[in-house]
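Worked Example 4.2. Read the sequence first, then its structure tokens.
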Amino acid sequence: MTNLESGLRCGCTRIAAMATAFLISTIPGQSAAQVAASSPAAAPPPSPGATAASPLVTRAQVLTLAQMGANYPIPLRGVDPDHTLNVGVRLDEVVTAARLKLVFTYSPALVFPLSHLKIRLNDEVVATIPLDQEHAGQQVTREVDLDPRYFTDFNRINVQMIAHYTLDHCEDPFHSSLWADISPSTTLTLSKASVTLPDNLALLPAPFFDRRDNNRVTVPFVLPANTDPAVLRAAGVVASWLGALASYRELRFPVSRTAPGDAHAIALVMPNAMPDGLHIDKIEGASVRVMPNPANPARKLLVLAGRNPEELQLAANALVLGKAAMAGASTGVQAVDLGKPRQPYDAPAWAPVDRPVLFKELVTDPQQLQVAGASPDAIRVNLRVPADLFGWNDRSVPLSIKYRYTAPSTYNDSVLSVDINDQLVRSYRLKPLTTQGDENLVSVPLLSGGSVSASSDILIPAFRVGSNNQMQFRFSMDSQKTGLCASTATNVARAAVDPDSSIDFSGFAHYAALPNLAFFANSGYPFTRLADLADTAVVVPDAPTTIDQEAALTMLGHMGKWTGLPSLRVAVAAAKAIDTVKDRNLVIIGTGSAAQILTGWGKSLPLMIERGKT
């Protein structure tokens, strides 16, 4: 083991003890009432075999502008006159009514008989809102009913400003009088009816995790009162799988002894350890099945069953790896290959740090690297790296970017700004096609004749980079109009960052001074150093409560979220059996017998608070 590796592993147990206090103090305090009830994701029409719940149960859902993808007031301008909001519906719900409450302010300098807002739902025009002189310059609220038949799985609501400031044919789309702003007070109210899905494993991970729903992922686990650590481990692997699916969403995995009546849930059962109120036919081996929730037939219960903890773990592994033929109401599992053990720092959610990483490896669709318009939103590239990347004071991160843009006809104020985590790194003038580049900028005409391809190498200060980062590339195209009635180009300016652009962390060493609770809270480090948690053990009290179990499952869910992989090789042990996992990094959860371990370690801990002492 090298000195750097020793530095990595030093203090892992101590950071776990500190992190546990954080988990226990936050997770139990979250009540169901605190969980957001609205969702901007969408769901397709009910699949064949799905039927409306009987009796029909409806609920109202109010989505804010932020929940529809806009965290700020939306500016509509003459050159960028429209904006699209994203709305989704879960697979187990259908929209029965929808109303858009649009709150906006518009320019008082418009020609009002010709100016209006056009509303589209999934490219269908559903309404127009006239802009009149009486309400110009002040906040206006208009409500628009949307036909629920137009709603599908992932929906787009587009608001377009059609505005004029003169009757003259010589209009400038950059004119300052062409504006309207949509307020964050804008909301969309959806009435939804529940849909009872068929008992079919082919729908997994829905409805337990629905990619159409961008709300907090809350999945209750139903565990028997005498839950063995091995059973909790199987549940933890499933929780980490859901965390990996959740991506950016928040997580919570409450634990109960009986099936909840208001949610889809996951139950783990053995013949001698059956949750209250749940009756499963004879268990003949490891199996995965989906069935109606006995507390509410409109909801589903995903049941992992086995005759012993080993078979239960086999069922969990098959579920998260998708090795079994998941179809129908149930399936048996004979064997599952976990694959090769993971290597340090190879988490799927982390960018490789041993070679240059291409941007096409960091996005799911190359279209994410393209924009259009005079002032489009930034191109955003998310980037996760290990928390222990260590650089000396003079160390920088090499960034090699290649980009293309519609070339301005003359030299103007068109620019590209390169930011990381909302901090400016460098900006470039976007030069016209005829202007020669400098030593760092090479302009090459493309086949279209109206575009320019350029490249540049940038050094990003290492202190600007954390474990969870976002690179932003902002193109701003200046007006090319040269006179009052000079014609302007009618084609929309376009720009793109090339997928072969790269960023390189290979020059950094791995070193971190531990314990560091911030590393754990932001990326699960040092436990996520191995993505499958092969060198990590979770220690729970000898008789864990549902709160202890929820803390363990939610923590493992976040581990999966941070690594992008289920925690397939994590160990779970009771406090009395801690010696069996003493060679692993430890996450200690709970009070009672687990807390006594910390007391026994005494002064070996980096921080210890005793009652009545300071």
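Now turn to a second chain, presented in exactly the same format:
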Amino acid sequence: MKAVIAEVAALRGKLHFTSLESRQEKMCIVDLDFPHDHRHPPTAEFRRFDVPDIHKFPQDMCSGTIFLVESLEELFAVCICYVDFDVENIGAVLVYKMDFSGDESQEPLGWRRV
């Protein structure tokens, strides 16, 4: 089974994206390393973490689109919420920041609303 990656953001040399597995949202990170010594091949490390679901829409809104955005060395999820599945009728825009408190090699703590 193939999974389509809809949104990707690059942050600090790593690719970040979300995937849905068994109705559980996962934050995925691909760390690409291109050694200066060209005799060694590039490497990629893949990590996957559980993150709290940010697909909770405000009252009277039941659909939306989420964009991953990198800004000033931070990772954000911008959620555009629609009224009645109508993409022309934007009811709210919510912004969340990924909390990477601590060592970056550890799991992110989750999305925090800003």
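Notes for the reader: Residues 11 and 71 are 9 Å apart (CA to CA). The mean pLDDT is 85.
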